Amino acid sequence: QKNTRMFPRTLRCLSSRRFGYQEYTQRACIEDGIEFLEQRGVLSTSSLRGTIFGLLRDPSLSMNSEERSRYEAARERLLRLVSSVEETHSDFVPPGLHVWNETEFPGYKKEDVFFLKHPAALSQRYQLSGLCYMHGPAMVQHYALAHNNHSVPMLDLLKFIKEHFTAEQLERHIFDNQGGDSSTFLKSILQANTVLVSPGLPHQSILSLFRDLGPALVSKFKVHEDFMKASVHHHYGKPSGKFIGYHAMTFVGHRLSDNGTSYFLLQNWWEKKQFVEVDADYLKASGAYFTFIETPQTGIPDTFSYTYGKYHELEAV
Fold this sequence. Notes:
By secondary structure, this protein is α+β, with helices and mostly antiparallel strands. The protein has twelve helices and twelve strands.
């Protein structure tokens, strides 16, 4: 009932996309989106609200090319948000998505890679735009349930955005493609009174916690130009190129070379770069933080929706 009353015209927009009704066009969908933003109080105190929503309806009204591009991107994000009921999920990974394989990542023992030790838990996510700060925590929560031998659902991030984002969060996402702090988000989606542990170096502390608690959120990872190369899945030494921004991933495995060098396996959300190996030097230079879930998780909180599958694609983000 809550969703039907909150998105009355959105349901008609969805019907038009599903059944091909001619009377409902993309323009109807953007009107659904603006109605949704109005109901959620986005820009409610701004004197420019009408102007901004007008540019969402038709970005070409702007005479500034940079502003026009910004509203075209915002319009696309809003259309994806209102045109989906739940995030895409499947028991099959789509062709073309980068997948784990022992040939590309040799030397890992079964007990040192979480999804090799718990094969039923392996799931992959695909990020379309800038909300890695949600993808990382959702995957860590998923693996925490598997670590404690419970069923392994995945938080439905699309429904979370629609039902739980504040007006400020929606504004940042739609108009600026910006998110928030991944550690804070992780805390918000876990069961009440969950204790998190964030160790610093040395790496032995991280490995010990990994064996006891399972995968960890990797946050505030400094991405440089070299990391942006989709075809490169191994990064050693120091990052190169200019600093791009921060990123969130999941730590899922480790190995030691014959000479004692530590390597860390990270799970990512980019289509052609789903798994990444970094050595201890690269990890240290990235300035990343590790956050483990200490309190055993028995389920996703009742107030949140979830799905099941080996693959999850959040079309809205």
